[in-house]
Amino acid sequence: MKSDRLQGLSLGIFTELANRKQKVKQQGRKVIDLSVGNPDLPPHPRIMSTLSTWAQDGSKYGYTLHAIPAFNPAVAQFYSDRYNVDLQPNQEILQVPGTQDGLFQLALSIINPGDYALVTDPGYPIYETSVKLAGGRVYYIPLTEENGFFPRLDQIPESILKKAKLLFINFPGNPIPQLAPPSFFEEVVFYAKKFDFKVIHDFTYSELVFDQERATSFLNIPGAKEVGVKFNSLSKTFHMAGCRIGYVVGNMEIIQALSLLMSHTHYGIFYPIQKAAEEALKSGDSFYRSHIRIYQSRRDLVIKELKKSGWDVMNPPATMYIWAKIPLSVSSTEFCYRLMEDTGVVLKPGSAFGKNGEGYVRINLVQPEVQLKKAMNLIHHFLLKQGWV
Ligand SMILES: Cc1ncc(COP(=O)(O)O)c(C=O)c1O
Protein backbone atom coordinates (compact mmCIF):
# COMPACT_ATOMS: atom_id res chain seq x y z
CA MET A 1 0.00 0.00 0.00
CA LYS A 2 2.71 2.47 0.99
CA SER A 3 4.52 4.28 -1.80
CA ASP A 4 8.16 3.39 -2.44
CA ARG A 5 8.95 6.90 -1.28
CA LEU A 6 7.82 6.01 2.25
CA GLN A 7 9.83 2.80 2.50
CA GLY A 8 12.76 4.53 4.17
CA LEU A 9 10.55 6.15 6.84
CA SER A 10 10.22 4.18 10.03
CA LEU A 11 7.97 4.86 12.98
CA GLY A 12 10.87 3.47 15.01
CA ILE A 13 11.86 4.97 18.24
CA PHE A 14 9.21 7.71 18.49
CA THR A 15 6.39 5.19 18.38
CA GLU A 16 8.18 2.85 20.75
CA LEU A 17 8.72 5.71 23.21
CA ALA A 18 5.05 6.75 22.94
CA ASN A 19 3.84 3.15 23.44
CA ARG A 20 6.00 2.66 26.49
CA LYS A 21 4.89 6.01 27.90
CA GLN A 22 1.28 4.91 27.49
CA LYS A 23 1.98 1.65 29.36
CA VAL A 24 3.70 3.50 32.19
CA LYS A 25 0.63 5.77 32.48
CA GLN A 26 -1.71 2.77 32.49
CA GLN A 27 0.25 1.35 35.41
CA GLY A 28 -0.86 4.45 37.31
CA ARG A 29 2.53 6.12 37.38
CA LYS A 30 2.69 9.90 36.99
CA VAL A 31 4.61 10.80 33.87
CA ILE A 32 6.84 13.88 33.58
CA ASP A 33 7.42 14.26 29.88
CA LEU A 34 10.64 16.09 29.06
CA SER A 35 10.89 14.63 25.58
CA VAL A 36 8.80 16.88 23.33
CA GLY A 37 9.79 20.44 22.36
CA ASN A 38 6.28 21.84 22.61
CA PRO A 39 6.32 25.23 24.38
CA ASP A 40 4.23 25.05 27.57
CA LEU A 41 3.82 28.81 28.14
CA PRO A 42 0.97 30.84 26.66
CA PRO A 43 1.62 33.57 24.08
CA HIS A 44 1.45 37.21 25.14
CA PRO A 45 -2.19 38.19 25.96
CA ARG A 46 -2.22 40.69 23.07
CA ILE A 47 -1.46 37.88 20.61
CA MET A 48 -4.38 35.87 21.99
CA SER A 49 -6.77 38.81 21.99
CA THR A 50 -5.88 39.73 18.39
CA LEU A 51 -6.53 36.14 17.37
CA SER A 52 -9.87 35.95 19.14
CA THR A 53 -11.03 39.38 17.91
CA TRP A 54 -10.43 38.44 14.28
CA ALA A 55 -11.90 34.98 14.83
CA GLN A 56 -15.23 36.76 15.56
CA ASP A 57 -15.28 38.23 12.06
CA GLY A 58 -17.27 35.86 9.88
CA SER A 59 -15.82 37.35 6.71
CA LYS A 60 -12.33 36.07 7.57
CA TYR A 61 -12.94 32.35 7.19
CA GLY A 62 -12.15 32.07 3.49
CA TYR A 63 -8.89 30.94 1.93
CA THR A 64 -6.24 33.58 2.36
CA LEU A 65 -4.08 32.06 -0.42
CA HIS A 66 -1.03 34.06 0.61
CA ALA A 67 0.34 36.40 3.26
CA ILE A 68 -1.81 39.39 4.26
CA PRO A 69 -0.25 42.67 3.00
CA ALA A 70 1.13 43.60 6.43
CA PHE A 71 2.92 40.28 7.12
CA ASN A 72 6.03 40.52 4.92
CA PRO A 73 6.73 44.16 5.91
CA ALA A 74 6.40 43.09 9.58
CA VAL A 75 9.01 40.33 9.02
CA ALA A 76 11.29 42.82 7.20
CA GLN A 77 10.99 45.28 10.09
CA PHE A 78 11.70 42.55 12.64
CA TYR A 79 14.92 41.56 10.82
CA SER A 80 15.98 45.13 10.35
CA ASP A 81 15.43 45.95 14.05
CA ARG A 82 16.82 42.72 15.50
CA TYR A 83 19.58 41.79 13.05
CA ASN A 84 20.24 44.80 10.90
CA VAL A 85 19.37 42.70 7.84
CA ASP A 86 17.62 44.41 4.90
CA LEU A 87 14.94 42.34 3.19
CA GLN A 88 12.76 43.16 0.20
CA PRO A 89 9.24 42.30 1.46
CA ASN A 90 7.97 41.24 -1.96
CA GLN A 91 10.90 39.19 -3.18
CA GLU A 92 12.95 38.01 -0.25
CA ILE A 93 10.26 36.88 2.20
CA LEU A 94 7.78 34.03 1.90
CA GLN A 95 5.24 32.98 4.50
CA VAL A 96 5.12 29.25 5.27
CA PRO A 97 2.77 27.15 7.42
CA GLY A 98 5.50 26.49 10.00
CA THR A 99 9.18 25.82 9.48
CA GLN A 100 8.59 22.06 9.44
CA ASP A 101 6.27 22.23 6.44
CA GLY A 102 8.39 24.92 4.78
CA LEU A 103 11.53 22.79 5.03
CA PHE A 104 9.74 19.78 3.62
CA GLN A 105 8.43 21.71 0.63
CA LEU A 106 11.79 23.39 0.14
CA ALA A 107 13.54 20.06 -0.46
CA LEU A 108 10.85 19.14 -3.01
CA SER A 109 11.40 22.43 -4.81
CA ILE A 110 15.21 22.23 -4.98
CA ILE A 111 16.36 18.61 -4.86
CA ASN A 112 16.44 16.36 -7.94
CA PRO A 113 16.64 12.58 -7.55
CA GLY A 114 20.23 11.67 -6.74
CA ASP A 115 21.28 15.16 -5.58
CA TYR A 116 23.29 15.32 -2.37
CA ALA A 117 22.35 17.33 0.71
CA LEU A 118 24.70 17.86 3.64
CA VAL A 119 22.95 17.23 6.94
CA THR A 120 24.38 17.19 10.45
CA ASP A 121 24.33 14.04 12.56
CA PRO A 122 22.78 14.43 15.08
CA GLY A 123 20.34 16.74 13.39
CA TYR A 124 16.73 17.83 13.40
CA PRO A 125 14.93 14.96 11.60
CA ILE A 126 12.99 16.87 8.91
CA TYR A 127 16.20 17.79 7.02
CA GLU A 128 17.05 14.17 6.32
CA THR A 129 13.44 13.12 5.80
CA SER A 130 12.63 15.90 3.34
CA VAL A 131 15.73 15.22 1.25
CA LYS A 132 14.97 11.50 1.11
CA LEU A 133 11.32 12.09 0.20
CA ALA A 134 12.50 14.33 -2.64
CA GLY A 135 14.67 11.46 -3.91
CA GLY A 136 17.94 13.04 -2.79
CA ARG A 137 20.88 11.51 -0.96
CA VAL A 138 22.14 12.56 2.42
CA TYR A 139 25.77 13.03 3.44
CA TYR A 140 25.97 13.14 7.23
CA ILE A 141 28.36 15.61 8.84
CA PRO A 142 29.22 14.35 12.32
CA LEU A 143 28.70 16.66 15.27
CA THR A 144 30.87 15.35 18.07
CA GLU A 145 32.32 16.60 21.32
CA GLU A 146 35.80 16.54 19.74
CA ASN A 147 34.75 19.01 17.04
CA GLY A 148 32.90 21.20 19.55
CA PHE A 149 29.59 20.07 17.98
CA PHE A 150 30.31 22.14 14.85
CA PRO A 151 30.14 20.78 11.32
CA ARG A 152 33.71 20.50 9.99
CA LEU A 153 33.27 21.46 6.34
CA ASP A 154 36.98 20.95 5.72
CA GLN A 155 36.58 17.26 6.55
CA ILE A 156 33.89 16.60 3.94
CA PRO A 157 35.41 14.87 0.88
CA GLU A 158 35.73 17.26 -2.05
CA SER A 159 33.92 14.75 -4.27
CA ILE A 160 30.84 15.14 -2.03
CA LEU A 161 31.13 18.93 -1.77
CA LYS A 162 31.15 19.11 -5.56
CA LYS A 163 27.94 17.09 -5.76
CA ALA A 164 26.17 18.86 -2.88
CA LYS A 165 23.13 20.96 -3.68
CA LEU A 166 22.09 21.94 -0.15
CA LEU A 167 23.63 22.34 3.28
CA PHE A 168 21.36 22.44 6.34
CA ILE A 169 22.61 24.28 9.42
CA ASN A 170 20.75 24.89 12.64
CA PHE A 171 22.08 27.38 15.19
CA PRO A 172 20.89 27.84 17.93
CA GLY A 173 20.62 24.11 17.52
CA ASN A 174 18.26 21.28 18.25
CA PRO A 175 19.05 18.71 19.55
CA ILE A 176 22.46 20.20 20.38
CA PRO A 177 21.83 23.66 21.80
CA GLN A 178 24.91 25.25 20.31
CA LEU A 179 25.39 28.84 19.11
CA ALA A 180 27.65 29.55 16.13
CA PRO A 181 30.01 32.54 15.89
CA PRO A 182 30.07 34.78 12.78
CA SER A 183 33.33 33.10 11.67
CA PHE A 184 31.47 29.80 11.23
CA PHE A 185 28.88 31.43 8.98
CA GLU A 186 31.67 33.13 7.01
CA GLU A 187 33.20 29.72 6.39
CA VAL A 188 29.80 28.40 5.28
CA VAL A 189 29.38 31.22 2.75
CA PHE A 190 32.92 30.64 1.47
CA TYR A 191 32.29 26.90 0.93
CA ALA A 192 28.86 27.48 -0.60
CA LYS A 193 30.35 29.85 -3.18
CA LYS A 194 33.36 27.65 -3.86
CA PHE A 195 31.34 24.45 -4.35
CA ASP A 196 28.16 26.03 -5.61
CA PHE A 197 25.62 24.72 -3.11
CA LYS A 198 22.81 26.50 -1.32
CA VAL A 199 22.54 26.96 2.45
CA ILE A 200 19.44 26.54 4.57
CA HIS A 201 19.83 28.09 8.00
CA ASP A 202 17.11 26.90 10.36
CA PHE A 203 16.83 29.79 12.82
CA THR A 204 13.77 28.52 14.69
CA TYR A 205 15.31 29.25 18.12
CA SER A 206 16.70 32.65 17.10
CA GLU A 207 15.49 34.59 20.15
CA LEU A 208 15.72 31.91 22.82
CA VAL A 209 19.27 32.80 23.81
CA PHE A 210 20.45 33.16 27.41
CA ASP A 211 22.86 35.24 29.45
CA GLN A 212 22.26 38.42 27.41
CA GLU A 213 23.88 36.81 24.37
CA ARG A 214 22.50 37.14 20.82
CA ALA A 215 22.40 34.57 18.04
CA THR A 216 24.15 35.43 14.79
CA SER A 217 21.93 35.55 11.77
CA PHE A 218 23.44 33.83 8.74
CA LEU A 219 22.14 36.69 6.57
CA ASN A 220 24.40 39.15 8.42
CA ILE A 221 27.39 37.67 6.62
CA PRO A 222 28.39 39.43 3.38
CA GLY A 223 27.39 37.30 0.41
CA ALA A 224 24.97 35.12 2.40
CA LYS A 225 21.89 36.18 0.44
CA GLU A 226 23.58 35.00 -2.75
CA VAL A 227 23.81 31.48 -1.38
CA GLY A 228 21.06 30.87 1.10
CA VAL A 229 17.94 31.41 3.12
CA LYS A 230 16.93 31.37 6.70
CA PHE A 231 13.79 29.76 8.08
CA ASN A 232 12.10 31.04 11.19
CA SER A 233 8.69 30.77 12.77
CA LEU A 234 6.52 32.14 15.53
CA SER A 235 6.39 28.75 17.25
CA LYS A 236 9.20 29.11 19.77
CA THR A 237 9.81 32.86 19.92
CA PHE A 238 6.16 33.78 20.43
CA HIS A 239 4.82 30.46 21.75
CA MET A 240 2.47 30.06 18.79
CA ALA A 241 3.52 26.51 17.80
CA GLY A 242 -0.08 25.35 17.27
CA CYS A 243 -0.81 28.29 14.97
CA ARG A 244 1.52 26.89 12.29
CA ILE A 245 2.97 30.08 10.91
CA GLY A 246 6.53 30.84 9.86
CA TYR A 247 8.57 32.34 7.05
CA VAL A 248 11.65 31.95 4.92
CA VAL A 249 13.86 34.91 4.03
CA GLY A 250 16.88 35.56 1.83
CA ASN A 251 17.90 34.18 -1.55
CA MET A 252 15.30 35.06 -4.20
CA GLU A 253 15.91 32.04 -6.43
CA ILE A 254 15.19 29.63 -3.58
CA ILE A 255 12.16 31.64 -2.52
CA GLN A 256 10.78 31.67 -6.06
CA ALA A 257 11.15 27.89 -6.37
CA LEU A 258 9.41 27.29 -3.05
CA SER A 259 6.75 29.86 -3.84
CA LEU A 260 5.96 28.11 -7.14
CA LEU A 261 5.49 24.78 -5.40
CA MET A 262 3.39 26.32 -2.64
CA SER A 263 1.15 28.06 -5.16
CA HIS A 264 0.03 24.51 -6.03
CA THR A 265 0.00 22.94 -2.57
CA HIS A 266 -1.03 25.65 -0.14
CA TYR A 267 -4.16 27.79 0.24
CA GLY A 268 -2.84 30.17 2.86
CA ILE A 269 -2.96 30.53 6.64
CA PHE A 270 -6.12 31.45 8.56
CA TYR A 271 -6.51 35.25 8.57
CA PRO A 272 -6.82 35.66 12.39
CA ILE A 273 -3.57 33.70 12.84
CA GLN A 274 -1.82 35.97 10.36
CA LYS A 275 -3.10 39.06 12.23
CA ALA A 276 -1.89 37.59 15.54
CA ALA A 277 1.52 36.90 13.95
CA GLU A 278 1.68 40.46 12.61
CA GLU A 279 0.93 41.76 16.11
CA ALA A 280 3.68 39.54 17.55
CA LEU A 281 6.32 40.56 15.01
CA LYS A 282 5.56 44.25 15.50
CA SER A 283 5.70 44.03 19.28
CA GLY A 284 9.47 44.18 19.60
CA ASP A 285 11.07 41.95 22.20
CA SER A 286 8.58 42.73 24.96
CA PHE A 287 6.52 39.65 24.01
CA TYR A 288 9.30 37.12 24.54
CA ARG A 289 11.72 38.67 27.05
CA SER A 290 9.88 37.07 29.97
CA HIS A 291 9.95 33.66 28.21
CA ILE A 292 13.72 33.86 27.92
CA ARG A 293 13.98 34.61 31.65
CA ILE A 294 11.75 31.63 32.47
CA TYR A 295 13.72 29.19 30.29
CA GLN A 296 17.01 30.49 31.62
CA SER A 297 15.87 29.99 35.19
CA ARG A 298 14.66 26.45 34.34
CA ARG A 299 18.01 25.72 32.69
CA ASP A 300 19.89 26.92 35.77
CA LEU A 301 17.73 24.78 38.03
CA VAL A 302 18.15 21.61 35.98
CA ILE A 303 21.91 22.05 35.56
CA LYS A 304 22.29 22.67 39.31
CA GLU A 305 20.22 19.62 40.25
CA LEU A 306 22.03 17.35 37.77
CA LYS A 307 25.38 18.55 39.09
CA LYS A 308 24.24 17.67 42.62
CA SER A 309 23.63 14.15 41.34
CA GLY A 310 27.15 14.07 39.93
CA TRP A 311 25.86 14.37 36.34
CA ASP A 312 27.93 17.15 34.84
CA VAL A 313 26.30 18.31 31.61
CA MET A 314 26.97 21.14 29.16
CA ASN A 315 25.33 24.42 30.09
CA PRO A 316 23.22 25.28 27.03
CA PRO A 317 23.65 28.89 25.83
CA ALA A 318 20.26 28.80 24.07
CA THR A 319 17.05 26.89 23.22
CA MET A 320 14.79 24.79 25.42
CA TYR A 321 17.07 21.72 25.47
CA ILE A 322 19.94 20.19 27.40
CA TRP A 323 22.15 17.73 25.53
CA ALA A 324 23.49 15.37 28.17
CA LYS A 325 26.06 12.60 27.93
CA ILE A 326 24.68 9.44 29.56
CA PRO A 327 26.51 8.56 32.76
CA LEU A 328 25.88 4.79 32.42
CA SER A 329 27.27 2.39 29.87
CA VAL A 330 23.95 1.58 28.22
CA SER A 331 22.51 2.77 24.92
CA SER A 332 20.52 5.97 24.90
CA THR A 333 17.26 4.11 24.20
CA GLU A 334 17.93 1.62 27.01
CA PHE A 335 18.69 4.50 29.38
CA CYS A 336 15.45 6.31 28.46
CA TYR A 337 13.29 3.18 28.65
CA ARG A 338 14.71 2.17 32.04
CA LEU A 339 14.40 5.71 33.41
CA MET A 340 10.81 6.00 32.20
CA GLU A 341 9.75 2.61 33.56
CA ASP A 342 11.42 3.26 36.92
CA THR A 343 10.48 6.89 37.46
CA GLY A 344 7.94 8.12 34.88
CA VAL A 345 10.43 10.73 33.60
CA VAL A 346 10.54 10.73 29.80
CA LEU A 347 13.66 11.93 27.98
CA LYS A 348 14.47 11.67 24.26
CA PRO A 349 17.29 9.26 23.33
CA GLY A 350 20.07 10.97 21.39
CA SER A 351 20.09 8.17 18.81
CA ALA A 352 16.66 9.41 17.64
CA PHE A 353 18.57 12.28 16.00
CA GLY A 354 21.23 10.20 14.26
CA LYS A 355 24.04 7.74 14.82
CA ASN A 356 26.26 10.30 16.52
CA GLY A 357 23.52 11.07 19.03
CA GLU A 358 24.18 7.67 20.63
CA GLY A 359 25.46 8.07 24.18
CA TYR A 360 23.38 11.21 24.81
CA VAL A 361 19.87 12.16 25.85
CA ARG A 362 17.97 15.37 25.24
CA ILE A 363 16.25 16.92 28.25
CA ASN A 364 13.56 19.51 27.48
CA LEU A 365 12.84 22.49 29.65
CA VAL A 366 9.15 22.62 28.80
CA GLN A 367 7.70 22.06 32.28
CA PRO A 368 7.28 24.40 35.25
CA GLU A 369 10.16 24.47 37.73
CA VAL A 370 8.30 22.36 40.33
CA GLN A 371 7.92 19.58 37.81
CA LEU A 372 11.52 19.91 36.64
CA LYS A 373 12.72 19.72 40.25
CA LYS A 374 10.59 16.61 40.81
CA ALA A 375 12.00 15.04 37.65
CA MET A 376 15.58 15.81 38.69
CA ASN A 377 14.97 14.19 42.11
CA LEU A 378 13.61 11.10 40.41
CA ILE A 379 16.63 11.00 38.09
CA HIS A 380 18.93 11.34 41.10
CA HIS A 381 17.34 8.32 42.82
CA PHE A 382 17.40 6.36 39.58
CA LEU A 383 21.14 6.98 39.17
CA LEU A 384 21.68 6.00 42.82
CA LYS A 385 19.80 2.76 42.24
CA GLN A 386 21.88 2.01 39.17
CA GLY A 387 24.96 2.40 41.36
CA TRP A 388 26.18 5.40 39.46
CA VAL A 389 26.25 7.87 42.37
C1 LIG B 1 15.22 22.93 14.78
C2 LIG B 1 13.76 22.98 14.51
N1 LIG B 1 13.36 23.36 13.28
C3 LIG B 1 12.07 23.41 12.97
C4 LIG B 1 11.09 23.08 13.88
C5 LIG B 1 9.66 23.15 13.48
O1 LIG B 1 9.13 24.36 13.89
P1 LIG B 1 7.74 24.95 13.35
O2 LIG B 1 6.81 24.90 14.50
O3 LIG B 1 8.06 26.30 12.88
O4 LIG B 1 7.30 24.07 12.24
C6 LIG B 1 11.45 22.68 15.17
C7 LIG B 1 10.44 22.28 16.15
O5 LIG B 1 10.69 21.76 17.20
C8 LIG B 1 12.84 22.62 15.49
O6 LIG B 1 13.25 22.23 16.69
From TrEMBL:
Cofactor requirements of the protein: pyridoxal 5'-phosphate
MF annotations from Gene Ontology: pyridoxal phosphate binding; transaminase activity
Alphabetical UniProt keywords: Aminotransferase, Transferase
One of the Pfam families matching this protein, by short name: Aminotran_1_2
Ranges for domain Aminotransferase class I/classII large: 30-376
Name of the molecule in the record: Aminotransferase class I/II-fold pyridoxal phosphate-dependent enzyme
